[in-house]
Amino acid sequence: MRLINMRPARPGAVLLAAVPFVVLLVAYSIASDMRLAANPQDKLLPAPATIAETAQRLFTVPDKRSKEILLWQDTAASLARLLGGVGISAALSLIFGLAIGLLPYARATLSRFVAVLSMVPPLALLPILFIVFGLGELSKVVLIVIGITPFMTRDLAQRVMDIPKEQIVKAQTLGASSWVIAARVALPQVLPRLISNVRLSLGSAWLFLIAAEAVASNVGLGYRIFLVRRYLAMDVILTYVIWITLLAFVIDWLLKTVSRRAFPWMEAGL
Amino acid sequence: MSFVSVRNVWQRYGDRSILERVSVTAEEGEFVSIVGASGCGKSTFLRMLLAEERPYKGEISIEGGATAVEPNRERGVVFQKYSVFPHLTVRDNLMAAEGFQTRFGRLRGAARKEAAARADQMLTRIGLSHVAQQFPASLSGGMQQRLAIGQALTAKPRILLLDEPFGALDPGTRLQMHDFLMELRDETNMTVFMVTHDLEEAFKLGDRVLVFDKPRWDPQDPNVIGATITYDFDARHGGMPHQDILDHFPSLAAG
Taking residues A120-144, what's their average pLDDT? Predict the structure, then answer.
């Protein structure tokens, strides 16, 4: 039998999915053990048990001075920035994507501009953003918006143009105005794409967020990681990294579920 | 004055001449089939009737109106595919035919209830009542085309344009669709233009069959001469004309 035709059965598939995680964990434990055996004071690869302890402390024990649990504060601040930036980007890309996709005048005016804009490396603009928008929340949100909006806009515009011309003509023969075509024909058909765009761009959004927080901030997940870096507190950094990964995973899963529930017609053909 | 009149229409894309000197008239209730080789301009002609394209020269008028600049509710259309909206249920697709012309694209209150009742009537007529709540993607090709025709008719257009409407269907379904279309036509007396590749279909359904072809062929530059209507067959009575001549001229029977 050919390799391409061999499929794992159900329990086997779950096991196979677990293998890389287990391998990573085991490899880390062994490496950590080796380093700690040589030097019990080693900070570079803390034992998994130490990380678990640190995690428990970070999640439950309040800071001595502020009487607040820092991890939750960081999480709230970072999520607010992230969701604000992504939300604004989604709204902007939807509006411009629909305009560029449907209106030849908007396309002639904006499509090149957006294409050039999407080539600008957003992190290179970070100093400018800090100067223009200050060191507060605004510059971080703007970095995310600048970072992901052009790419989302381009993709959505392309999706709108991919709607079969027959449908647009048909809507006109039913008397629909440009506005009705945008709102009732194009918009509902690109909304699922918008959600998958958001899912794709969340990775970059996290990147921009953590970069901005690392450079200038006083609260946030990225800020904390770069702060404790100075003390080589790998247990804290690793806890934060795992926590961020978990958050990203949950957001992605939520979006996927929403998409599936809200757009049953997408799957009607499957 | 004819119901639909096409006067000396030309179409060209850049230097390529597609159609030239196309003149034809059709009466209300006529079913006109349009055939021709690929690339002969028959689909271009249909797009001009639809006002998706404007003629380079000449006039196309329905009931004496001016040449339209964009598609409107006077013209209903069914394409080979993509004619229905995939994100709307079968019933909503029919209601869109009434709702899309309003300011916000949907009906409310009493108007909505009436439209829903009319949509249900149409669903019964096109035999799709049992799938009213489903999305088009879950329907078979034939059902989707019936829905597309029902949707076009719900908007009550003056002329119905069909662009190879049964081209993607299997032969059995195609025959069913022929019967379905003939029944609808008997009920509505709709004026229809249908582009098709299938000559048998063209003669079976049409009252007339227009053939598009290039009248001349320039060996140096084949693009310089466009196509036009080279034949205009009477397709009634199984394609044999003058079968009812005695009804019109009873005196010929004597002798």
Answer: 89
What does the block give as tokens for B28?
A: 């209300």
> Distance (Å, rounded) from C-alpha A118 to C-alpha A121?
8
Nearest Cα residue in chain A from B139: A269
Residue ranges of domains in chain A? 1-37, 71-263
Residues of A with CB under 8 A from a CB of B: 164, 166-167, 169-177, 179-180, 183-185, 188-189, 263-265, 268-269
Residue-wise pLDDT tens digits, B165-183: 888 888 888 888 888 888 8
pLDDT of A23: 96
Contacts of B82 in chain A (CB under 8 A): 164, 166-167
Instruction: Please give, rounded to a whole number of angstroms, the shortest distance from the CA of A69 to a CA of chain B.
Output: 47
Q: Is residue B92 part of a domain?
A: no
B109 is a domain residue: no
pLDDT at B240: 75
Yes or no, beta carbons of A265 and B88 under 8 Å apart: yes
pLDDT value at position A179? 93
pLDDT at B103: 84
Of A167, A183, A269, the CB nearest to B105: A183
Per the structure, the count of domains in chain B is 1
A267 pLDDT band, cuts 50/70/90, is low
- Residue B24 belongs to a domain: yes
For the stretch A174-219, pLDDT in tens is 989 999 999 999 999 999 889 988 999 999 999 999 999 988 888 8
Ranked by mean pLDDT, which of A98-107, B34-43, B147-156 comes out on top? A98-107
Full residue range of the structural domain in which residue B48 is found: 4-81+157-253
Alpha helix ranges (H) inside A39-103: 48-60, 70-102
Domain A71-263, CATH class in plain words: mainly alpha
In this structure, is residue B175 part of a structural domain? yes
Does the pLDDT value for residue B1 go beyond 80? no
pLDDT at A270: 46
Q: Is B155 on the interface with A (CB under 8 A)?
A: yes
Closest CA–CA distance from residue B208 to any residue of chain A (Å): 25
- CB contact under 8 Å between B83 and A166, yes or no, is yes
